[in-house]
Amino acid sequence: MKNILIFGDSLTAGYGLPASQAYPSLIQERLKQEGYTAYKVLNGGLSGDTTAGGTHRIDRWVNEPIDIFILALGANDGLRGIPTRETSQNLQEIISKVRNKCPEVKIILSGMEIPDIVPGRYAAEFRKLFRELALENNVHFIPFLLEGVAGNRQLNLPDGVHPNAEGQKLLAQHTWSKLKELL
Prior knowledge:
The chain is an alpha/beta fold. The chain has one domain: SGNH hydrolase (Rossmann fold, 3-Layer(aba) Sandwich). The chain has helices spanning 10-13, 23-33, 51-61, 75-80, 84-101, 122-137, 165-179, and strands spanning 2-8, 39-45, 68-72, 106-110, 140-142. A 5-stranded parallel sheet has the order 2-1-3-4-5, with helices on both faces. Helix 6 (122-137) links the parallel strand 4 and strand 5. Helix 2 (23-33) crosses helix 7, helix 3 (51-61) packs parallel to helix 5 (84-101) and helix 5 packs parallel to helix 6 (122-137). The longest helix has 18 residues, at 84-101. The two termini are 13 Å apart.
């Protein structure tokens, strides 16, 4: 069995939905449909988690072998206005820890964005930090995990922040488009 760890926050955990509707479960289904039965998707989503929390939490996940690592943290950092340098350093630490424990791992970084309505340069710097990390680490990259979902009422729960079941399908689609290249 090969492990695919999707490590993220409430978006990965499927906040407000049954686990079967969260995008890691949808990807597991897709793998089965496409005949990739040797892969097991591990949902490492924790609602409310930040990249700082992730640097500590990753330790217990890398005790078992990980073949493909999908890093989908950062949304809560953006919502809280955490300095981009800090977010970037935390994500780098997570990537380094995973590579250290699983040298053969293939990595996908899921980019996050915050709305441009946020004043100043923060939104642009936040968007850029994911692109720079992907290049520096030579990892596969999803530019924006919530592409087409963020801000779309039909695809989010009433809170306007967390994807509903239909929105989760798009997250799965964005992730699958990169993941299939690595199988």
